[in-house]
């Protein structure tokens, strides 16, 4: 199964043809419009098999599946954290879509939002893939926070969930050689902040892992798609 996560940087309805070239089974898209309220009929027609969440109808988080797959909202508790979707895929495994948000939190911003979500739902993750824009990297760890990037990765590893990029390319956290985000679309400001994690027992083998080519994707977004085949 091919899973793609991409922060489309808004106006997803105009970028569908680009993402379709990846021929994904499941798409996790950050900053996409809510198909239910969109006035674009082509977008509504395309988005027949999806789950979406968000407060801004123009920029939320969505899971989109091709027609041969079923996705069901698990309805897991999130205690107001932003933004996460838990879906059951083909009644076989759980997919957690992530767009770690500032959330106007004075303390638990970005990776802190995911840390809080993890504390609530950790015991449910025995069959999970977790994919999205985490807005986080080990390079930004703060030692006085018990929920920094390294702490979250450690907690996931304790329940047998590992980063597929780091396993496939054999890099350590914080030593990534492939950016996933370019601030202001500048190739001089590269960062690795998007990840796909998977449970090592349920998904022991990675067939492939790729990150989109900046020469193609930076013309339409500040993020590159990340692609895992499991």
Total of domains: 1
CATH-assigned homologous superfamily: Endonuclease/exonuclease/phosphatase
Main CATH class? Alpha Beta
Largest sheet: 6 strands, mixed
Shape: globular
What is the structural class? Answer: alpha+beta
CATH topology: Deoxyribonuclease I, Chain A
Task: Output the keywords.
single chain; 230 residues; alpha+beta; Deoxyribonuclease I, Chain A; six-stranded mixed sheet; 6 helices; 14 strands
Write up this protein:
With 230 residues, this protein is α+β, with helices and mostly antiparallel strands. The chain has one domain: 4-Layer Sandwich (Deoxyribonuclease I, Chain A), CATH 3.60.10.10. Helix content is 18%, strand content 30%. It has 6 helices and 14 strands. The protein has a 6-stranded mixed sheet with strand order 3-4-2-1-14-13. Strands 5-6-7-8-12-9 form a 6-stranded mixed sheet. The radius of gyration is 16 Å and the shape is globular. The mean pLDDT is 97.
Secondary-structure blueprint of this entry?
Blueprint: E1 2-7, H1 16-20, E2 26-32, H2 41-46, E3 50-56, E4 59-65, E5 71-73, E6 84-89, E7 93-99, H3 111-121, E8 128-133, H4 149-158, E9 161-163, H5 164-169, E10 181-182, E11 190-191, E12 194-199, E13 208-211, H6 214-217, E14 226-229
Parallel strand pairs: 1-2, 7-8
Antiparallel strand pairs: 1-14, 2-4, 3-4, 5-6, 6-7, 8-12, 9-12, 10-11, 13-14
């Amino acid at each position: 199964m091919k899973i793609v996560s991409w922060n489309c940087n808004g106006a997803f309805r105009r970028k569908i043809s680009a993402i379709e070239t990846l021929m994904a089974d499941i798409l996790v898209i950050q900053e996409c419009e809510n198909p239910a309220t969109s006035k674009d009929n082509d977008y509504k027609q395309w988005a027949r098999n999806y789950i979406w969440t968000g407060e801004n109808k123009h920029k939320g988080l969505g899971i989109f599946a091709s027609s041969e797959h079923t996705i069901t909202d698990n309805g897991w508790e999130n205690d107001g954290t932003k933004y996460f979707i838990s879906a059951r895929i083909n009644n076989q495994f759980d997919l957690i879509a992530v767009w770690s948000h500032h959330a106007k939190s004075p303390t638990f911003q970005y990776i802190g939002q995911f840390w809080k979500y993890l504390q609530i739902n950790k015991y449910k993750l025995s069959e999970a893939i977790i994919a999205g824009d985490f807005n986080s990297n080990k390079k930004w760890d703060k030692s006085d926070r018990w929920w920094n990037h390294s702490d979250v990765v450690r907690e996931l590893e304790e329940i047998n969930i590992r980063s597929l990029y780091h396993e496939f390319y054999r890099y350590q956290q914080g030593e990534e050689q492939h950016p996933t985000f370019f601030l202001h679309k500048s190739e001089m400001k590269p960062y690795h902040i998007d990840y796909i994690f998977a449970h090592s027992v349920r998904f022991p083998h990675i067939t492939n892992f790729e990150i989109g080519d900046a020469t193609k994707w930076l013309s339409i977004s500040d993020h590159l798609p990340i692609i895992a085949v499991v």
